[in-house]
Amino acid sequence: MDAIILQILNGLDKGSAYALIALGLTLIFGTLGVVNFAHGALFMIGAFCAVTLSRIISVSHTVIDETRTDFLGNPMKVEVPYVHGWFGVETGDALIDWAVPLSIIFAIPVMILIGVIMERGLIKHFYKRPHADQILVTFGLAIVLQEIIKYYYGANPIPTPAPEAFTGSFDFGAMLGFDPNTIIYPYWRLVYFAFAAIIIGAVFAFLQFTTFGMVVRAGMADRETVGLLGINIDKRFTIMFGLAAAVAGLAGVMYTPINSPNYHMGMDFLVLSFVVVVVGGMGSLPGAVLAGFLLGILESFASMRQVIEIIPGINQVIIYLVAIIILLTRPRGLMGRKGVMEE
Amino acid sequence: MSTGNFTRRGLLKTSAVAGAGLALPTYLSAANHSGFTNAPGDSTVTLGFNVPQSGPYADEGADELRAYELAVEHLNGGGDGGMMGTFSSDALKGNGILGRKVEYVTGDTQTKSDAARASAKSMIEKDGAVMITGGSSSGVAVAVQALCQEAGIIFMAGLTHSNDTTGKDKRANGFRHFFNSYMSGAALAPVLAANYGTDRKAYHLTADYNWGYTTEEAVKSSTEAMGWETVAAVKTPLTQTDFSSYIAPVLQSGADVLVLNHYGGNMVNSLTNAVQFGLRDKLVNDKNFEIIVPLYSRLMAKGAGANVKGIFGSTNWHWSLTDEGSKAFVKSFGTKYGFPPSQAAHTCYVQTLLYADAVERAGSFAPCAVVEALEGFEFDGLGNGKTLYRAEDHQCFKDVLVVKGKENPDNEFDLLEIVEVTPAAQVTYAPDHPQFAGGALGTCNNGA
Fold first, then answer.
1. How far is residue B325's CA from residue B347's CA, in Å, rounded to a whole number?
2. Considering CB atoms only, which of A76, A159, A168 is closest to B305?
């Protein structure tokens, strides 16, 4: 029992990331009809927003420490962050420590801007082109973006830790009456899950309860009629692209303490996120979220030693296996709508 | 009137032969003149540096390339000479190799076997490289080594740690200076016993590919021999980024040690996840829970940040060594590039010097002559103490470093501290050791 609870918990944070990326993908597909293979790159850029802000906050000046020597035997150059001078050591260190959560504020405008530039500069030219062309151009764009990041940040992962207050793990086992240490879960992953839930809730509320959201939903259902009513739906869809980019970016920002970001982390998530979208049902926002968590949890179960011992290699194929079964039994996915991708 | 034998038929025959000759790959045509592939001309010799310039190990590849450039500079008489001044052999004079100026070409392995073979093939066939070296993966090393054997080229392996490179996949034309999985296990076990005791339960997470298997086997057999029990060994996909679902069940298994047979991004992520789960703060079986990383790399440790603190592992070389060879290399490299070299840079630099030295001693670039010069060659002054290039498997036997993540690093390069320099004798094994079984060196190949 404790092993099952543990894997459900594990699946939640992975599922959160899948759900957030798939949500953005579905928003873009539902509004603009574009299959955006650069969406994983937006997740990666979000993570690098956290890296960038963390580096900005830590910008230092060099002080020579005559009492110590460097690897060549010269006097040691010690880096002292400017924030120490501006705000004092304690506040300066706190700012550096809280760089990842602070990056949320930094990432939102940056990601919206990148999303809008991407849509206006490139993707809008491919609206009327076949999906294969859209996939090719967005996949190419993803490679370009990740190579740019690699050029400036290198190929190695860059450690971007969570604030000190969130290090360590919570003992669910002890709380639920199991033996101590049987169900432990890192605090930051709980934060990630809660953050994902808030973002998902906010996106749904925005679409459900605002006039802007209502128009977008109407446009998703029937773009032509909304256009005939004199509403500039293109402009709204561009904003939605920016919003989807921000959702992916925020998912990336908060993911950095879980795994040190590197330039190809977007690609690692992209394919699985597409499977999530297809399983959830193309164009269905609740479907994307549901499938994200479902597949995240299933993947966790499949990684259990006891399961791998019975079916070797299941951990590597489980998501695709489940996708095949779901698509055979429900060709439109879990919550897919009739008519989407069926022309 | 001339009755010379210039006829239409003769012209056609001559043209056909000439055409066929031109169409031959350059390495075959060169062999016709010298008896071996890509014999250099009188003024220059070309070496091929095959390193990951793209992909996840690109930073390690960049450091390898820096080391190669430094080695070429030193071989040609530039800079301060680096380790040439401390090398026990005095065959290298700083006038290139056998009086020929050293030039080089580079290829990108992308850390993919097929891409690495393609780039090595291109450097051999198009650029006339007489020796191929480099790489940051055992899969690549084994693939390129086999190619070089077929082509009649010497292969001086870069960073490759799998037992198989000089085990079941060894080749007569291939040589490895870097240590291997067996040596890591043999060096680590006594240190682990001294620090964590002999009554421990270990849980292995192993990258699901060749290097992972040999490392798991080596560490398991070494630790079990000193009394540890292996509770479980779980394979993890090479593409895995989040290891939480593999790490979470570790405590439930009753294990009190986690061995991460991971390298590169895998290591960074699995270690980060394990520390996040607070494993190191737990008390299991009345003992502190411990984590071990059998193969450390400073470049990779940097990615894991503070998570490496206090964690044991092994490494081939470290810039903080104080022998004359290491000091000379760190000074040369540090002065030129502004930071200390990695272990990948060290092994690549040393391999280039060893090749050049072997050619000088053999008096020939012919691969079989170089093989003969390297087999059984004993040397010192290159950073790992007295070293033997064993004739039976072309593996270097030298001291191995056991290291630990430093608790209070002075700077971003100061991540590991040397805990013990394990003597070569302790990590030496018989050529027919079961972990290296199968395969044969075969005979050296000079090419067509």
1. 13
2. A159
Q: Please give the model's pTM, rounded to 2 decimal places.
A: 0.84
Residue B284, chain A, CB below 8 Å: the answer is yes
Query: In the predicted model, what is the mean pLDDT of residues A44-60?
Result: 96
Kindly state whether A58 is in contact with chain B, defined as any CB-CB distance less than 8 angstroms.
Answer: no
| Mutation for B interface: A150, A303, A306, A314, most B CBs within 10 A | A303
A72 close to B (CB below 8 A): yes
Nearest-CA distance A204 → chain B (Å): 28
pLDDT of residue A14: 83
Assess A271–B contact: CB distance below 8 Å, yes or no.
no
Query: Would strands B44-51 and A169-171 be described as parallel, antiparallel, or unpaired?
Result: unpaired
Give the whole-angstrom CA distance, residue A34 versus residue A131: 7
Q: Is the CB of residue A65 less than 8 Å away from at least one CB of chain B? A: no
Find the largest Cα–Cα distance for chain B.
Answer: 108
pLDDT tens digits, one per residue of B229-268: 999 999 998 888 889 889 988 888 889 999 999 998 889 8
Cβ within 8 Å of B, A 193-222: none
pLDDT in tens, A220-256: 778 788 888 888 888 888 898 999 999 999 999 999 9
Percent of chain A residues topping a pLDDT of 90: 41
ipTM associated with this complex:
0.81
Please state, rounded to an integer, the average pLDDT across all residues of chain B. Answer: 90
Domains of chain B: 44-179+320-393 (3.40.50.2300), 182-315 (3.40.50.2300)
pLDDT of residue A199: 95
HSE toward the beta carbon, residue A102, CA cutoff 13 A? 16
Query: What is the rounded distance in angstroms from the CA atom of residue B112 to the CA atom of residue B140?
Result: 6
Give the C-alpha separation, B338 to A32, whole Å.
Answer: 50
Q: Under CATH, which architecture does the A2-50+107-329 domain have?
A: Orthogonal Bundle (1.10)
Sort out which chain B residues have CB atoms less than 8 A from A161's CB and list them. 305-306
